[in-house]
Amino acid sequence: MYNLCTKEDLFMQFFTADTHFFHERLLGISEFAPRPFLTVEDMNQTIIDNWNRRVGENDVVYHLGDIAILHTRPEKDALEQIFNVLNQLNGRLVLIKGNHDSRALFKYLDKHNYPVGNHQKFEFHDVGVLIKMNHCQYYMTHYPMMMGIVKQIINLHGHIHHYAVPIKEDINVGVDTPETDYLKKKPPFGTPLSQAEIEEMVAGKAIDFAKRH
Fold it and tell me: Is the pTM of this model over 0.70?
């Protein structure tokens, strides 16, 4: 008997958070969220381009919250603009709700969901998702979590932008994260992180903490 795999069954997993599409107040250089763009259009397009250079059509991207902030009225126009940006991104999006992600946005995306291969473009989670990669478990949330002493469980999170939690098991995967400093080669702004990069960041932070203690 042969195990036949279709093209749609072959995919890679990527991780990101805090894209904050359309968020004008984050533009510029700051300690909190350094984003050297003059316009949100420039920022949005940079994220889209760098995302699509890495992510394939059938790949999965776990987005750990704070997709966009747009206060255009009526609300339907804002939701449509956000959908149009997400529709330009390659891959299937597993969306974990952030503090800036409204219930209305998730409902709008669900209403306009569509197939990508054997799956839907969008998948929704209110709190978090647990996956296993290379004999290690990753609990993905928007807010950083205090996991306690649990072997082989890493918390991937966003929310805190250009800051890092002083816990070696917590890894910030947001587009502004300072923890890409643990990588030999830092990806361009807005590029979702690969499994290999996540593992390199986990190892680098563990080594860093071992040296400090």
Answer: yes
